[in-house]
Amino acid sequence: MAINRYTKMAYANADEMYFGKSKFPVKAGLGLEIGAGYAIPELNYAPRPHTGVSKEALVTEYEKITRDAMNRIVQIGAPAVVLETEHVQQMSNNPTWGAAVAHAQKTIMEEFHEEYGVKCALRHTIGDIREDRDFLALRGEKNDTMLEAFDLCAKQGADLLSIESMGGKEVFDYSIVRDDTAGVLFGIGVLGTSDIDFVWQNIADIAKKNKVVAAGDTDCAQANTAMFIAGGLLDKNLAHTTAIVARCISAARTLAAYEAGATGPGKDCGYEHTIIKAIAGIPISQEGKGSTCAHSDVMGNLTMQCCDLWSNESVEYHGEFGGTTVQCWVESLAYDCSLMNTALKTGNQKILRDLLALSDKYRDPQGYVLHYENAYKVGEAIAANGKDTYLRSKAAAEECCKILESGIKEGKLVLTRFEQNALKNIENDLKAMPDSREKFIEQCMDKYKAEVSVFKPENYVL
Amino acid sequence: MAINRYTKMAYANADEMYFGKSKFPVKAGLGLEIGAGYAIPELNYAPRPHTGVSKEALVTEYEKITRDAMNRIVQIGAPAVVLETEHVQQMSNNPTWGAAVAHAQKTIMEEFHEEYGVKCALRHTIGDIREDRDFLALRGEKNDTMLEAFDLCAKQGADLLSIESMGGKEVFDYSIVRDDTAGVLFGIGVLGTSDIDFVWQNIADIAKKNKVVAAGDTDCAQANTAMFIAGGLLDKNLAHTTAIVARCISAARTLAAYEAGATGPGKDCGYEHTIIKAIAGIPISQEGKGSTCAHSDVMGNLTMQCCDLWSNESVEYHGEFGGTTVQCWVESLAYDCSLMNTALKTGNQKILRDLLALSDKYRDPQGYVLHYENAYKVGEAIAANGKDTYLRSKAAAEECCKILESGIKEGKLVLTRFEQNALKNIENDLKAMPDSREKFIEQCMDKYKAEVSVFKPENYVL
Amino acid sequence: MLDFKKEDLDTILIRYNVLMEKTMTPDEAAEQLYPKDPLLKAVAEAIYEGEEDDVIDALDELLDAGKDPIKLIDEALLPGMAVVSALYDQGIIFLPNVMMSADAMLEGIEYCKTKTTEIPKAKGTVVCHVAEGDVHDIGKNIVAALLRADGFEVVDLGRDVPVDEVVEAVATHKPAILTGTALMTTTMYAFKEVNDKLVEKGLNVPFACGGGAVNQEFVETYSLGVYGDQAADAVSIANFVLKNGSNMDTLRKEFDVY
Amino acid sequence: MLDFKKEDLDTILIRYNVLMEKTMTPDEAAEQLYPKDPLLKAVAEAIYEGEEDDVIDALDELLDAGKDPIKLIDEALLPGMAVVSALYDQGIIFLPNVMMSADAMLEGIEYCKTKTTEIPKAKGTVVCHVAEGDVHDIGKNIVAALLRADGFEVVDLGRDVPVDEVVEAVATHKPAILTGTALMTTTMYAFKEVNDKLVEKGLNVPFACGGGAVNQEFVETYSLGVYGDQAADAVSIANFVLKNGSNMDTLRKEFDVY
Ligand code: B12
Ligand code: B12
Questions:
Q1: Which of A395, A399, B129, C5 has the maximal Cβ count within 10 Å?
Q2: Does the beta carbon of D225 sit less than 6 angstroms from any atom of ligand 1?
């Protein structure tokens, strides 16, 4: 497929955006329409370690997971659900394994759809296996295996295809722990986007061929890594201001999947997706207070503001007093969705959205910038520079800084001195960057070829 | 303490009630005021089985739990938390064990309060150990041990004292699986209330002496048992209409704790507490979509409508991807509270309450009746008959049936034929009951002494 | 008052139970299962209704017609109860009906016994218990009731039963199976102890376990364990053992949940 | 636009990090820790600032003053870095400062080495790795950086390291400790294998393990395991072993999280 860069916003203003509804809804699976006016729980899960030994053991484990989850959905009267299977390595490295799992899951989902009319769809997120032990190996044999995994899973029942692609991560990893703004921007905005262009044209073709949905990506490998290193309020490993700058840049990157043919729903752990929804109008999955099983963040409510699917990110399958983990978490998600859907049906979606967003707005600089009103502004900065993936990344970072500064000025966003200093440094770094993509790439190529031993330029076409 | 029956409503109308605020807030622990205009997460947890072997192992386990939870609270910036320790048997049977745990937990909480200013309180729920293997033994030696456990825990740091008392359960257990309305009413409304009167006068005295809070009870042993046997929408063990009648009766029972000196916050698993809040104006703890770790119900949002504390009921301490279970669940609860508090501060609490309540109102007859507007009506029926514990229980059941009938008539509450039949039977049973307490007791004594082999009338003073 | 239109409900919630309810009423379904013989049918109907007095009356008619009281247990009472069990298994009637019918049937058996000096032979014995340390006995009570309803002699040891007492009861009663219920993660380990002591004493009786805390994986860690999710599974397991013997492999295979 | 007043914020959220921030600025705190000697102080300051060129300049002045290049490592560079580490431990500065300072210090060490033919002796060697099957290496990178910053020679095996390769590296380098990082519940079991092979070969080196998936309980199931929660704990563990030897009991006691 060709690449069509976004240069305009899908939404005329931020206020038009809310949960459960997107400009361009997506039909998928068994009776579902995503982003069509109702929010849907998206359950994620991980098989227990010991079941990884064989295809059979894995299939059985996923069957249990699927049956447990569908049962609970019916027991509480939830109308719809999406299941997301994030491949464990074995399932992508051996495409027939992943396909067997997809088939087993879909068979059970079809049973439930037929018996009860539960609307449902199955997302398979193929592992980005394109690496050797020490180096990324984005193009070549591993890429072929990965694409085969996409194809076979689509054939065997996966309705939504996703990946958390890793392009640019080698440079990013080096830079993020050194407060190196240029490296972060290069890793995410330039290298990452280049890889997305490559990967998603292929996935979109496969999806089209198999009549399933090319759903979308997330900058988990980079922006989420920054968010995790930044951690909670008292962690001392990375300024949260730095993390949100990385996040804004990642919006410019993940957007490229939709420019290469993906249609959404974008993946749950892409906290950049509110920004992207504003630009591209695609439905998105999000995670927050319902994904504490998987990680902690400082914006558990806010992420719900514009979600179409509401996810728990991942939980290991095991027993709890209330049932198995997948049952517990899908139930919590389903109630959150029920609340959103009630708001939608009674015309109260905007007030609920505003309450959700406001409750986290001042908790942390990350939430402040991702608040849908500010996220929209970041989107505008990206769209205004849409054609140039470097410039739009830089614009996203600059807009992020501007938003933070105005929050500080207004007085309610109170940052630590440390966060403010990090912000100042980033602002200076951004000012020092060239205005031309070519020049920036040249500078970075020189620097990172020298400094980052695992960086192999042949992974990218710039 | 003396018993003062409620005969009036604390709230002039249902609309005055909402989450985070109660007529009679309760000060507790380190800087907390419960029901004073903000909602607070209440975390519950269970030690891992193997730690039950010794006092030392238990203390260490609860220290880990406490430290983990307090840490997470600080990391996400939550202002307040309540920790609830539900005693495992050993801790109540050996009062010094429970006290040692209380002391260890409180020491850590004090550290956090001093270092960060986190507002917090510790609830200890003593086990109702008043039973021999086959029979309840409500009065006597076991009762003495139990009261000693209350006293020692209060002395060693517990701020809130609770219990899930079991009076009447032997008759209830027999009756509930036989659709025996009289037995259910006798077990919960008459025997249960009698035992509450007895237990809570003692607890209130102990609390007063130790300057801590006599917090409240729940009809877990009966109404929740009914709710669990009833199960999900597709379970076939008990009509959900029967379960909600038992629940309404339980409001007339649990209310007695507050008549005997308890001041709230009532315990989380008392789904009858919205009714009681309407009558007594005490703050309440509730559980729902944030307690799927512990059990499944069909009103995960609705229970939030008027809660002051928001609880996860119980989770076994172990690891998850996102931290330990206590960290995961307390974080989810804290975000829910953050949403409620944002609504409170911006004057939107009523619309959020209405959305929460409406989203579950028609899911199940139980949610329908517990919707705050209907719950208020059940409260009125109880208060109008407040002096007579039999008549008020009967009135609660009758009002419950009336509410269900009107819901059916209105057309949005759609019941199965089976649920409707069960309702009809209950209505008939209620009609057949005598108007006088004495007569009812006489009838029941004869019947259950004969039919329920484990029923020992000497446990009660009627 | 915030509310929505009925037609909006189905994006919020779906009452699958209403959707799924069988079109047949329980009475109609029962009607199809009753025995043809009018006298036997009267017993079955009385059991279905849970009316103890009617059961006795119907039995009296059969006795008057010269039937043998002991045979009536197998030919009138148990088949009558089987109608109820079948309806429960199909999800047409609910547990309280089963409990009340079982009470009525047991009353009928007692009545028959008074009419003879013969001692009726139950189809088999089952020992039921709740794990040591655990007082949650409702699940066990349901299990016991369903077993009785199916014609088993039930030795109900109650709740919080010491391991040795369980083992002794098995030694004494030589049941077809033993059942265990545990609702707490702390108590279910007692099952392992019971198992090991049974094995030690050569009492290789299948040990059906269930209850909230218990899962198949755990139960299959001890040699005699077979897991049951629903109370009715205890009945199926007991019947399966009567028919096919107590080979643990076939038993586990038959009752694999997944 | 829905919003609330600033004074309402504190029932919703509390930015404890803002509340807790030390009143001293990092620069002030550093000032208090620098060596008195102006030449040594210049090295320390340059390291603190993460300015590699300034480090070289400051070293040049010391070399010009006749100092021995090898001694400068121990007397100027490491004490300079110690200021940074101390500030990090106290929560006054953040990780990126440490990383940049460490880069500057390492540059300084390289520079000193060019000024002599002597081979400086590191205080000790540590082998670091990420468990087989696991590519999550950021935690390991931090661990390695902090160890280097503290003067350890680090043999960084990278990520997804086969068990045998880890064991070989330990055999070859005879480190004070081995570190392992695992972020996935699926990969952490490799630590047990590493442990068992080490023990088999008599390589009783303390094996410090950490990373998202790992907890103390798990780590203490294998004989050489000692758990660390934060990356900085790896440094403390290594130093503790240098000082107190590798008795596992004392080691575990010292680094008990609870
Ligand atoms: C960033 C990230 C990634 C990045 C990794 C980038 C990189 N270079 O490391 C990318 C995108 C590549 C990635 C890939 C995958 N990931 Co990932 N990832 C994460 C994430 C979000 C953060 C991890 C992180 O970097 N944390 C920050 C670092 C600094 O923390 P840390 O390593 O724990 O280290 C700290 C301490 O532990 C300590 N420490 C570390 N080591 C040591 C050692 C010693 C001796 C001591 C004392 C201390 C110590 O020091 C550090 C600072 O204090 C986690 C989420 C989570 N909850 O952890 C998931 C997570 C680990 N990933 C997960 C998964 C499933 C995957 C994938 C399989 C996804 C997929 N389907 O493709 C692949 C894995 C491929 C593979 N074979 O490994 C799961 C693992 C689930 C499980 N089964 O256990 C997690 C938990 C996410 C989730 N909730 O589901 N991931
Ligand atoms: C009702 C209840 C009670 C009642 C019990 C009344 C009674 N007579 O049984 C009372 C109030 C007395 C009670 C007390 C306590 N409880 Co309680 N209780 C519950 C509750 C809410 C419901 C249990 C129930 O009755 N379910 C309905 C029955 C019908 O289900 P069931 O037994 O599982 O049986 C079904 C199947 O499993 C199957 N089955 C059962 N047995 C068998 C056997 C075989 C062979 C087969 C095939 C099938 C089978 O058939 C049944 C129908 O299909 C649960 C919540 C939960 N999530 O389970 C907590 C729960 C079990 N209790 C709990 C606790 C902690 C306690 C107390 C310690 C509380 C306290 N602090 O005092 C005490 C326990 C004292 C003791 N030593 O046992 C915890 C246990 C946590 C843990 N550690 O595992 C739970 C899980 C609540 C929670 N989420 O924290 N409890």
A1: A395
A2: no
